[in-house]
């Protein structure tokens, strides 16, 4: 799975979580780019991401994420570990 594939899937997740079909994200997108991105929406993004990709994140892994590119990297790491 490429970074672009993951980004496209994450875009759909963000659109669902924020209930806004116009949401676009880039690898540089972060919580500061979305007024509605609070702690609850962050949990919803992580849970939806885990479900979509069939992975499981540790709290310590997601606490330090600064932007979407780091989330993409974490997803790729988890997928690689699954084989």
From TrEMBL:
PROSITE patterns recorded: CARRIER
UniProt domain Carrier: residue ranges: 1-79
Coiled-coil region: none
InterPro entries the UniProt entry points to: ACP-like_sf, PP-bd_ACP
Membrane-spanning intervals of the chain: none
Name of the molecule in the record: Acyl carrier protein
UniProt organism field: Pandoraea iniqua
């Amino acid at each position: 799975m490429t970074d672009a594939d993951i980004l496209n899937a994450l875009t759909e997740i963000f659109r669902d979580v924020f209930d806004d079909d116009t949401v676009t994200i880039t690898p540089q997108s972060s919580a500061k780019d979305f007024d509605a991105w609070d702690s609850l929406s962050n949990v919803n993004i992580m849970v939806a991401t885990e479900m979509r990709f069939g992975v499981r994140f540790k709290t310590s892994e997601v606490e330090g994420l600064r932007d979407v590119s780091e989330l993409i990297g974490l997803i790729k790491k988890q997928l690689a570990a699954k084989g």
